[in-house]
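Hi,

I'm pasting everything inline rather than attaching a file, because the server keeps stripping attachments. The sequence lines come first, and each chain or strand is labelled.
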Amino acid sequence: MLKKTWVVILGILVVISVVGGVWYYLTQTAPKGEIVIGGVWSLTGGSAAVGEYMHRGALLAVEELNKRGGILGRTIKYIYEDDASQPTTAALAYDRINTQGGAQFVIGTTFSSLALAMMEPASKYKVLTLFTGAGDVKIREMIMQNPDKYKYVWVLNPNSTVYGPLWVEFIKDYVTAGKIPPKNKIIVVIREESGWAIGATDFLIERAKQLLPDWEVRVEPVPLACEDFYPVLLKIKPLNPIAVIYMGYYFSSALALAKQYFELNIPALLCYQFIAGQPEFVKTLGVERTNYVVWGNYMGMPIKDRREEFVKKYTERFGSPPSVQSAMAYDEVMLLAKAIEKAGTLNTEDVVKALQTIVYEVICGRYVFNTKTHDVIPGKGYIPSLVYQFKGGESYIVWPMDYKEKEFELPPWVKPSG
Amino acid sequence: MVLGDITPFLINGFLIGIIYGLMSVGLSLIFGVSGIVNMAHGEFFMLGAYISYFLITIFGLNPLLSCLMAGLIMFFVSIVIYMTAVFPLRKYVNWTDNVMVSTVGLTVLLINLALLLWGPWYRGMFSYFTGSISIGDITVSVERIIMAVFGVVILICFWFFVHHTSFGKALRAVSDDEYLALLAGVNAEKMYLISFAIGGAITAISGGLLTPLFFIYPTVGQRVIVKSFAITIIGGMGSLGGPIYAGIIIGLVEGLTTFFWEARWADAITFIALIIVLLIKPAGLFGKKGRV
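And the predicted assembly:
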């Protein structure tokens, strides 16, 4: 009797599961007249600080477009998945957004390692996938080696051939301008063990050999997501370098480094990648601890009035200011919308063709794609790399000279005499 | 190489090693007394860090006092966890294996609870105590010294409890031989509960102490647990002093690795040491045979 009861209960559970699953699947399919754009972002885990900003930037763009009537008269349905800052989860999230979400276009992601994990599923589903925040040269190499396989994968940012060298060019320009004293002629790069950082550092070293041939670039590798920099900083301090560049993207690492850096009174200019551009960087460390710190990115918001307009509407919508990554994700959606409008259809092949010839200026600059590498053309007039400096809790563009908003200031603890 | 060049690395390694030891001793205590492998150890650390953080930011408590309070709160939380996630499984034959799986589930639950309550954002106390002490070329952060000293005080109190109180003697008796302890009238079940609660409390205190060093976020425990397990196994799973010595050894080895080689190999060295210890002395450097 008891056995029969359990069989009946089990049977009911199976039926409920099947019905529930079918219902769920049916409700996820977009009704006619909608365009489904799926976003894969790091909303939890080590990269959540960046991922949330990107998700909000994309959401803002979708809401704006829908207010204007959508794309080709169709409303955009924006769905998103969390990759938990892990490559394996990113690949699963990509699968889910296609199989369960029914995404017709996919945008993302927070970092290169996550984009790399999504390349295979992207080639499998043949859905136009736009990445931003994916600077690893390996992505470019994979696309160039297999253009047919990865024809639907496009990257909205320059790659690390630009990222590393920007620091050398920045230092060189300010040494020439007499603002950076060439004491000891040593640059230290604290490099995390990620493909992107290794690539960017290699390109930095190459560029230094060209522009600063009598300088030494010393690399100190640290584990991924390192949070105890004391041993490395103790090693660096006696070298008395002019600049210490942190080549890494974990937010917790960036915070820990700044804190320990100032505790040990390292007398050098502290340089970060984009990670220091998150509003939480100043909020967590405080204004005093971030004064004179510089941060650079292969993309920024170079046009002042567009930046101010974006910051205003983002802040009104979400109650807090955006980061550069918010602008990148916003541009991602706008660019996708432009490509679809240019194609006049939702057909993936036509939209890809439209993307190849698009010239579109949004917040981060003017987007024109390199059709061989599927990433954007960097530099002046296109997507310029920018270096910012913090002062009083705000950051200002200090390089390149054409985009400079304020003068670069050497930190008072960097003594001119070696 | 001059001694002055290497001294800062040794000092820093020693200081951080004490914290590693404190971080790991709770795991070893729980295993040593009850045989439970607490896979949620990292999350006890995480909760201790968050509790300490909120006690400071909301109530303005002194940072060291907040660590103690976090330990006290987690003592009682650990009791609740024991009664709900461990005790019900005691009646099964391979109950320790079942509890290990149960604590894996607890890990997922606690991480997601933390995400729900506090979000994925990083929180951190910038500095409890600012400044550094410089003697010649040697610079050490005041904060690290104070954290390490406080850690030593906690460990001394723990040692005193284990060796000079009746509860401590009972814990050691159960750890050495449960059946003999039962025959001697020790309530083993009570000892399991107390060891779990004390282990949780000590781990929570280490979480509070490490807050200035590591910023807090819901998955911070995942970073801690791997190192804790390695240090505990090297020291001797079940040994009460082993993880402390192992923590100091690992802290020194990490510092020396960075000095002579590169920081990226520091974690690898820890696991190479783990493999060597397992091959040569599986019970751990200071462990007892039979518990492993």
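The longest strand of chain A covers residues 34-41.

If the labels don't parse on your end, tell me and I'll reformat.
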